[in-house]
Each structure stands twice: as structure tokens, then as C-alpha cells.
Amino acid sequence: MELKELRQLAPEELRLREQDVREELLRLRLKLRTNQLDNPASCRQARRNLARVKTLLREKELARPGAPVEKRDA
Q: Is the confidence at residue 73, as pLDDT, over 80?
């Protein structure tokens, strides 16, 4: 899914997408450890997709008016 398509999704849909990507990443890691994965780069791609979804969720969370802003320590 492209970034443009992800930006159009509602926060609830993004959370569902996050769960899907997490499950996909789990399956890919399992296949990688059991030497059944044909393309090891797919793990990296899944991790990046997860990061994109989480970033968009955080952007939408901060964009909501009246939403509490949580400071995160590095």
C-alpha cells in the first residue's frame, strides 16, 4: 500500500492495518528463521510499512484538536 493511500485511511482503519502488518512481520520472521523465506528483503519492507503506519497514526493523533500531547523522552 502506498503512502498516499495510507494517508486517506481513518485512524481505526490504520490500527487494523497495523495489526495486519504486525502479523505479516511475525510470519515473515518465522519463515526467515526456518529457512523457508524466498526473499529476505520482504522482512525489511514489512518493518518499514509498520513504521509508516505507526507514524501516520501518531500524526493523526497529534492533529486532533484537544488531544493530549504526550511528551516522549529519547
A: no
Burial of 18 (0-12, 13-18, 19+ CB in 10 A): middle
pTM > 0.70: yes or no: yes
- The CB density around residue 14, as the number of other CB atoms within 10 Å, is 19
Q: Which CATH code is given to the segment(s) 3-62?
A: 1.10.287
Contacts of 31 by beta carbon, 8 Å cutoff, 6+ apart: 37
Gap between the Cα atoms of 66 and 71, Å rounded? 15
What's the rounded Cα separation, in Å, for the pair 26 and 29? 5
